[in-house]
Amino acid sequence: MSKKFYINLSIIIIIGVIAGFILYFSIPSEIILPRDSQLSFNTFPSCSLTEDCILTESKPLVERNGSILTINTGNTGDFSYSLKLFDKIPLKKINVSVIPKNYVIPGGETVGVKLYTEGLLVVYVSEVTSTDGAQYSPGKDAGLRENDRILKVDGKDIGTNEEFTDYINAKKSTVHLTIARNEEITETDASPVISGADGKYKLGIWVRDSTAGIGTLTFYNPQNNGFAALGHAICDSDTLSVLKLAEGSLMNCSVISVKKGEYGNPGELKGCITGGDIGKILTNDSFGIYGELNNTSIIDGKEPIEVSTRFQVKEGPAVILCDVDGGGTKEYAVEISKVSKSAAPDNKGMVITVTDDELLQKTGGIVQGMSGSPIIQNNMLVGAVTHVFVNDPHKGYGIFAENMLEKSNSTEAVERTASVLQFILFPP
User: Fold this and answer.
1) Which one of the listed residues 148, 209, 210, 232 is annotated catalytic?
2) What is the pLDDT of residue 59?
């Protein structure tokens, strides 16, 4: 055979290998879609998806139109396909899960958040200048550290800073502390000293018992009376640790002013509580805060919309819902510039860019307090705003709506309790 033949053969093999790599990584191994929907992929004319086994008569149907492969879903269930190059060379297995459609009422309203701790969070361990002029650190001597949670004092529950201070000053001697550290319970004794500054007994530790702030409601689920907000965890402002709440409340809130975001300096919404509790916060984790809404007037007149899976989110135009001036929830234009289809849950699953001139004029982009703003695309709830790009307030991250819905529907979100303190709406 001629040299030219081998050169051409080598080129064909190289093209095939490159095409195989592109196909392998361009189509996920696990795909989740609602029933009666479709998902298309740009491939090669010689690419195909073949069914491994027939599970039901109304299985997802695969169509090929030139280089475009389209999956059309029918009944719910799990289905398996083989992705092949040149209709013969197997590249990978693709599992398709077809789930029922889910509907929620999108939010966008600014809400107040009030949270209480289970125990007291140690945010700083310091020294105390005693009446003898010497400096002591009873807390440090007792082995206390930042992020410890004081659950009990001498076997008694202590709920507030004031109760803790009053007890220490009433006893005036060594106290036995029950401490939670990294989910483990430990015990220690601490002996307070008299402060030369005010004559009070102190352990040289700074603790917190509650916090309040504002954020944005993401959605309300009428099927279980559940709500989701923020899209990321509430963290302690000093230690930056994710806080576990004992109990918390969602409240009506009105935006009274806005500090515009600038490069290197994120802005923020400022608001005031305008009414009583409208919901009970049950959990706080990396995907946001979740609970039960006991007053649905905040979303009166709104209609449910479908919740998309991450595979239905496309790069391109979308809108966010938020209230940035106290005038009520409005739609503002954004561009979804990046979408991650990773199977691992993440509250940075997409990147959005604010393109709405009105919103840019009002806020400079994404600011603190907009965390949780629903992202709508093709009349579906696709996600929520979570973090701002500190060096570019026009841009921010978003979490997929399916992750928030799963958390809202989970037993863990309804039953688990934790303690929560001062928080940062946009952690770095």
Assistant:
1) 232
2) 61
